[in-house]
Amino acid sequence: MKKLDRHQIAARVARDIPDGAYVNLGIGLPTLVANHIPKDREVVLHSENGILGLGPKPAPGTEDEDLIDAGKAPATALPGAAYFHHADSFGMIRGGHIDICVLGAFQVAANGDIANWHTGEADAIPAVGGAMDLAAGAKQVFVTMEHLTKKGESKIVERCTYPLTGLRCVTRVYTDLAVIDVKSDGLHLVEIVAEGLSFEELQRLNGVPLKYRAAA
Amino acid sequence: MINKIFATPEAALADIPDGATVMIGGFGNAGMPAELIDCLIAQGARELTIVNNNAGNADAGLAALIGAGRVRKILCSFPRQTDSWHFDKLYRAGKLELELVPQGTLAERIRAAGAGIGAFFTPTAFGTRLAEGKETRQIDGRDYVLEYPIHADYALIKADRADRWGNLTYRKTARNFGPIMAAAASCTVAQVRETVDLGELDPERVVTPGIFVKRVVRLAAAGKTQRKAA
């Protein structure tokens, strides 16, 4: 079996982002999605620190300390961009104006619950940022993650054991093994992306039952 | 005549008492009023409650204020960072109280304070650990958590240009918490790169109207953080 790498997962997510979408990309793997959006699609990236129309990284030497992205890295603004304050920015998120957000996760449950902000360890210093707002507010919540933990346990679970970020909000999960939709009647396999992985093997690894209807 | 421009940051911050609640603008270094924070450290106020998105980075700015032991409590959304060692140490030692607030809820609680809202229902964090013990309500089939405004005695923010009435413009993503903190505090102090005559700021482009600002300090360095990169 050949699993997808981080860039391949990001490219697979990018295929599903339609022309004209307003999109928020989380920190880490989700940020890579921007590199793979097809050139013929106009997608407006939202960065929750206060910009719509986020552009690529600036060329070395042209960084502006007043222009950064949500990961606090130097950023650029595309022609057509807009700046706004934090309450407006999160109004866009909670108000259902963001079409898609892409988040990383520790776990996703079969009912669409997501856990991505806290490991649950008692002595961990908690930090949440905008994750709960994005989970609650974006029209569609895409999750990218490796399918299995280092111990080989599925991160797609019946019920999250880590502290929750949001309830019943995830719409689609992209892993290094498969693309899976979360629907009201459970998990639906969209596509196996790992080379040489059978449905039966994926089902065994995933733990939670997957529905699959081959394309007619 | 109205003239909100103060000659020095020391004069603008002189009356901040021990125990004050102080909002500090900025997201990362963008919009962080570094020189005002340095001045607050020198001023000596203690037992402060600080409202900021983070809990300081490396050894400068808010991190230095925390490191100097001046902060009793902090309200923020994302304290844990690779370089938040001053916060981490005091928090683990039980010497610094943390109220962790989701970022959008933090922004809206600040906005609500400035806008005279008594409380509001938000869907964010419903059913999570951060909503434990809070009042909830189902409205039109959706679940919400009741959240209260955050008022402050002072707000220290960084803007780009100001006039003597306190009208402010900002630069790019340095705007972040500036406008809402300015409205939420009883006394807002803005450090700016440039002060201009009345009428020079296009009223169409004023982002924070002067009614929300009590004091303005022009700092030559305010447009660019002169300190070493954190």
Series of H and E elements of chain B: EHEHEHEHEHEEEEEEHEEE
Shape of chain B: globular
Q: Which residue ranges of chain A are poorly predicted, with pLDDT under 50 across at least 5 consecutive positions? A: none
**Would you identify the CATH architecture of chain A?**
3-Layer(aba) Sandwich
Q: How many helix segments of chain A?
A: 5
Question: In which range does the helix fraction of chain B lie?
Answer: 10-25%
CATH superfamily of chain A: Glutaconate Coenzyme A-transferase
The tally of strands of chain A reads 13
Measured by DSSP, the beta-strand proportion of chain A falls in: 25-35%
CATH-defined architecture of one domain in chain B:
3-Layer(aba) Sandwich
Give structural notes.
The complex is a heterodimer of chains A (216) and B (230). Helix content of chain A is 18%, strand content 26%. In chain A, the strands form two sheets. Chain A has a ten-stranded mixed β-sheet with strand order 4-3-2-1-5-8-10-11-12-13. Chain A has 216 residues and is an alpha/beta fold. Chain B has helices spanning 9-13, 34-43, 62-67, 85-92, 103-115, 178-184; strands at 5-6, 21-24, 48-51, 71-76, 97-100, 120-122, 136-139, 142-147, 152-158, 161-162, 168-169, 185-192, 194-195, 215-218. In chain B, the strands form three sheets. Chain B has an eight-stranded parallel β-sheet. Chain B has a three-stranded antiparallel β-sheet with strand order 6-8-7. In chain B, strands 11-10-13 form a three-stranded mixed β-sheet, with no helix packed on it. In chain B, helix 5 packs across helix 6. At the A-B interface, helix 3 and helix 4 of A face helix 4, helix 5 and helix 6 of B.
